[in-house]
Amino acid sequence: MTGLALAATAAPARRREKQPGRGWLLLPPVLVLLGFFGYPLVLVVLQSLESKTGEFGLSVWLDVLGSAEFRDAAWKTVALALGATAGCVVLGTFLALVIAFVPFPGARTLSRLVDTVLAFPSFLIALAFTFIYGSAGILGAGGFLYSPFGILLAEITFYTPFVMRPALAAFGQVSSAQMEVAASLGAKPGRVLRRVILPEALPSLASGACLTMLLAMNEFGIVLFLGAKDVTTLPMLVYGKGIVTFDFPQACVIAVVNVVFSLALYGTYRRLTKGDRRAAVDQA
Q: Where do the ABC transmembrane type-1 domain residues begin and end (predicted)?
């Protein structure tokens, strides 16, 4: 049996050895990626190093990074992203726990209803909030909607499924035997939740939180549509510099900073999801 297993694992390696020279097949997609994504990014970086007077250097970077406008936008971007992520983790985990462990009619329908939000563009959430809470809306709340709190509420509503969906998948893999043993030993439901259920779902919750923060940091439609007073995020600042004032070098600097933040969060998300998959394989 051991010989058969070794032969089975060695066979794909032999097949790969017999098929040399296939690396050129990767050339077309690599060229497409470089043309559509790499080249524009290089242009943005080069534009960020060239001032309006044509001088090449770091003067634009120093002006932007040293300005109070940039620091304020960066702080508000991070604060809104952290707040939206925290709200989505709390709400998404709660909804996932209810759907996964509380039997009630319509649980599957509720899960699918929440999932439909994933198919909507973000500005539709802002539009719906305007119809409900706007000055001329159903409730006529008005003021709070055009504040950071209104943006935060809209982002939590829109991005909660991005945490809820992986949490549901993780809760579905929790062994019922573990929960039954914990209950038989006298553990109360809250202790079972803290010691058995949540630790199993922690990698999925962390990856969902990273993805949510990545998306919230780059959110543009909700912030633009609500038009909250004195709320300028980095994407909004790029829009203002590039489209409104036509200051392309400064817009490119802010865009590069935003890309760096996004890549760092995406790398964290990939590491977490890789660890989650590896744990699932080990358990199998």
A: 74-269
Question: pLDDT grade, residue 141 (50/70/90)?
Answer: low
Whole-number Å distance between alpha carbons of 267 and 191: 33
145-190 pLDDT, tens per residue? 778 888 899 899 899 988 988 888 888 787 777 676 666 766 676 7
| Mean pLDDT of the region 140-148 | 72
Which DSSP string do the residues of 64-113 spell out, in sequence order?
A: HHTSHHHHHHHHHHHHHHHHHHHHHHHHHHHHHHHHHHS--TTHHHHHHH
224-261 burial string, b = 16+ CB within 10 Å, else e?
bbbebeebbbbbbbbbbbbeeeebbbbbbbbbbbbeeb
CA pair distance 81, 216, nearest whole angstrom: 5
Longest dimension (CA), the chain: 76
50: phi then psi, degrees, rounded to nearest 5: -120, 120
- For the stretch 253-267, pLDDT in tens is 999 998 888 888 888
Both tokens of 167, joined, read: 């949490």
For residue 50, list its beta bridge partners: 56
Going from the C-alpha of 80 to that of each of 212, 250, 275, the distances in angstroms are 11, 23, 27
Q: Which amino acid is residue 150, in one-letter code?
A: G
Q: Residue with structure tokens 């909030």? A: 129
- Residue 73 clears pLDDT 50, i.e. is over it: yes
Proportion of the chain above pLDDT 70, given as a percent: 81
Q: Which amino acid is at 278?
A: R
Candidates 215, 192, 198; CA nearest to 262 is: 215
Q: What pTM value is reported for the model? A: 0.77
